[in-house]
Amino acid sequence: MSSAAAFVPATRELTELADAARRCKGCPLYRDATQTVFGSGSTSARMMLIGEQPGDQEDRAGTPFVGPAGRLLDKALAAAEIDRADLYLTNAVKHFKFTTDERGKRRIHKTPSRTEVEACRPWILAELDSVAPEVVVLLGATAAKSLLGNDLRVSRHRGEILHATGLVPGGDPALIATIHPSAVLRGPSETREAAFDGLVADLRTAYATTRTVRNDGSAGSGTFIPAARPVRK
Residue ranges of the Uracil-DNA glycosylase-like domain (predicted)? Predict the structure, then answer.
């Protein structure tokens, strides 16, 4: 099975991890993407947000959440009174997966496979170990399954404070699954406002958790799901 594990250096320094990620060939996605899009933000963030993968604009810029979904996320963070500068943002998959339209000019997002998500998981674990957040917001199904296993359903566990054993040495960050901002953009116009409000509410829940949960794993009575459950093809 393909894996990024061989490309992840034994360091907790984010700058070194980001540099190594630029040379990652742990799955075939690097061949078509413009560049690796590593995480960015506060290196000591108490809250980390994980999305699915970079989109077209992120692939060109080399920075996560700068396209339409990123702008909607910024709006949701502002509504939740959360400063993006205090957060660390990244994606479960570091390369843009896409197909092209009939003319071959427009790049269209394509959901990463389970194998590709699993291959990229070592980078997420390295980022978690480095940043050591108190709470992690999993934006969408791909992000949620990357850490909580393929059986996790966002619709069933959305907004709950979850835990997964063994994600990072000596830590137990709270995990909160919610929808990806792109789901708000893609949804029917008549439900878009409610979807946006739900995302804001989940972000507020996560942010409040950073004020009440210690990083030593004393986080209340959430649902526990083993982190070692693989994302299977």
Answer: 38-204
Cα–Cα distance, 81 to 207 (Å, whole number): 9
Residue 106 CA to residue 112 CA, distance in Å, equals 18
CB 29 within 8 A of CB 93: yes
* Longest Cα–Cα distance in the chain: 54
Residue 109 in this model has a pLDDT that exceeds 70: yes
Mean pLDDT of 185-213: 92
The three-class DSSP label of residue 85 is helix
CA distances in angstroms from 208 to 21, 61, 76, 173, 174, listed in the order given: 32, 31, 15, 14, 11
Query: pLDDT category, 163, cuts 50, 70, 90?
Result: confident
Could you read off the pLDDT of 57-90 as tens digits, one per residue? 999 999 999 999 999 999 999 999 999 999 999 9
pTM of the complete model: 0.89
Q: Tokens at residue 132, please?
A: 């050591």
Residue 158 CB-density burial (10 A; 0-12 exposed, 13-18 middle, 19+ buried): middle
Instruction: Identify whether the C-beta of residue 137 lies closer than 8 Å to the C-beta of residue 65.
Output: no
Q: Give me 150's structure tokens.
A: 């393929």
Q: Alpha helix (H) ranges present in the chain?
A: 14-21, 56-61, 68-79, 114-131, 141-148, 154-157, 181-186, 189-210
